[in-house]
C-alpha cells in the first residue's frame, strides 16, 4: 500500500513540476548528440571557423551583419585562413577565382541560398527576379525581362539622363555659389533616384529639387535592407513576419508605383499611344497587351518597383566611389580630364557626351572599373546551395545542400589576380595585356556573375558614363573632411557615410 502511495506521489510530482524540465533536458540532450555526431562526421570539419561558435550557430554571422562591417571582417578572415572559411553551420565563404565558374557559371545547378528569401514579400516571390530560387522559374522570368534592359533599348533613354544631369548641374552651381558643405553621396543618390524614375515612369521623383528624402523613400529602403539582411539569416521567421517588414517599410514606394501605373493605364484608355512614351512602363504595358497571361500586371508592378528599389542605392554607391576616388587622387583626375579634353578637341565627343562616345574613353573606363573594384556596392557573400552530387571547390569536397558564396570585397582584394596592394586605387591596373585583364575581369564581381548577374548593369553604366565626365569638366569636388577613413555601413549594400564636400565651379 505504501509503495502504491509513493508511486502515485512520484507520478503526481513528475507530471506537475518535473516533466517540462525533463522534456527540455532530454530534447537538449538529443539535439546536442545529433549535432555532435553531425559535426564529428562532417567531411569539412577541418575547415577553420570564422570565430568560436560559428560551426554551432548562425548567431555569430547575425552579429557580424548587425555590426555592419562584414566586408572588412570577411577580407581579414581570408587573409588569415586562405581560400575557405566557415561563417556559420553548413555555410562557407570562398576566395578562389576558379570557383566562380563552378558556383555561378551559366550552366551550374547551384541555386540561390535561403538568405535571399527575406528580400521579397512571399506573395510577390513569383515575379521577384532577385529572390527567386527555382532555376527554371528564374530563367523564365529573366527571359521575360531581359529585352527591357538590353543595351540597345537603354540608349533610347539618353535624353532622360541628360535632363537629370542638367538639373543636377544647376543644383551644383547653386552650391558652388553658396560654398556650403554638401553630402555628395546623398546628392548622387538624389540623381540616381530621379534618373531611375524618369526612365521607368517618365517623371522624376523630385529629389534633385532640394535634396529632400521625398516620402521617406531613402530611409525606407535603408530599413528594408536592414530587415532583409538580418532576417535572411533566419528566413523561416520572415515567412511569419514579412507583413511587418518590407511591405510596411516600402509603403510609399508601393503607393507611388501603383499610382504611376494607374495613371498610365488611364491615359492608355483615353487613347495615349504608348509607343510615343519612351520609358519602361510603356514597354511593360505593350508587352502585357501582347501576352496578358505571360506578362501580367504583377510583372509590370514587379519590374517597376524593382527598378526603384534595386537600381538606386547600387548606382549611387558606385558613383560615390568614383567621385571619392577622383577627388582624392588628383593625378588620376588630371589624366582623366586630359583624356576628355583631347577627345573633345578631336571631335570625338559631343556635349553632353553620349553613352557610346564614353565607351571610347579608355582611361575613363579603367577609372570606373577600378572604383567599382575597390568599393563594390554589394558587400556580403552571394550565397548559393551546392547541388546534388556535391562539388569540389579549392580542393575540398562540398556535399549537396552546403551553402557557399564569394564576397566581391574579398575577391577584389585577391593579390594573385589583381596584383600587389589590391586595396589601392590604381586605374592603370586595368590597362594591361588582354590575358591579364581577362583574369581580372573573371574575378570582378561587382555585378555578380553568371545567370544571376545584375540585369540593370547597363542602366547604371549609362547613368555613370554620362554624368562623371560632365561633373568633373564643370566642377571641382573638394573633400570637406578627410575621406580616407570615412565610415561605411554594410546592409548588403555598403554605403559610405558623410562624404562632406564643397563644390567649386571650374574656370
Ligand atoms: C552600379 C549599379 C549596380 C550594382 C553594383 C548592382 C549589383 C548587383 C549584384 C551584385 C547582383 C547579383 C546579386 C547576387 O547574385 O546575389 C545584382 C542583381 C540584380 N540587380 Fe543589380 N546592381 C546595380 C544596378 C542595378 C539596377 C540599375 C537595377 C534595376 C534597374 C538592378 C537590378 C538587379 C536585379 C533585378 C538583380 C537580380 C537579377 C537576377 O537574379 O536575375 N541592379 N545587382
From TrEMBL:
Keywords: Heme, Iron, Metal-binding, Monooxygenase, Oxidoreductase
Swiss-Prot/TrEMBL cofactor(s): heme
Annotated InterPro entries: Cyt_P450 (IPR001128), Cyt_P450_CS (IPR017972), Cyt_P450_E_grp-I (IPR002401), Cyt_P450_sf (IPR036396), Cytochrome_P450_monoxygenase (IPR050121)
Binding site for heme: 454
Pfam families on file: p450
GO terms of molecular function: heme binding; iron ion binding; monooxygenase activity; oxidoreductase activity, acting on paired donors, with incorporation or reduction of molecular oxygen
Source organism superkingdom: Eukaryota
Family assignment from sequence similarity: Belongs to the cytochrome P450 family.
Protein name: Cytochrome P450 oxidoreductase
Natural source organism: Exophiala bonariae
